Amino acid sequence: MSRPGIRALGVDPGSKRIGLAVSDRSGTIASPLTVLQRSRSKRHDLAEIARIAADEDADVIVFGLPLNMDGSVGKAAKAATFDARQLATLVAVPVELHDERLTTVSADRSMIDAGMNALERRRVVDKVAAAIMLQSWLDARSVRLERGT
Prior knowledge:
Low-confidence stretches: none
Number of domains: 1
Mean pLDDT: 90
CATH architecture: 2-Layer Sandwich
Number of helices: 4
Number of strands: 5
CATH class: Alpha Beta
Distance between the termini: 15 Å
Largest sheet: 5 strands, mixed
């Protein structure tokens, strides 16, 4: 049974940087795309994400939800939810929230294992974390499609 393809843009929001990742057109594999430095304007940052989503021909934007380790919603998750809602007003595609707990830790560990130094890691960790989060969403979507839910 073939699954419908989907092009997804993953967003890993941080206080200083925003990591972006994109899936292949089949919606199977997520890859790091870029890192945006936060500007002083949240409106500008969200408009830039919307522009990139259009440039990448995204069918959906998956916005990372930084829940607390116990699964509760804290300040960062509330801010991400607000930003995702604002972004949804700027794009013509759905914006979905997805749990991003431990994605940055996981990204950092994998890059340490690959022998990258701290400076190299700092430049790319956000987009790698976005790819890990997006891959998690793609995998969960694949399971849902297989189950027909």
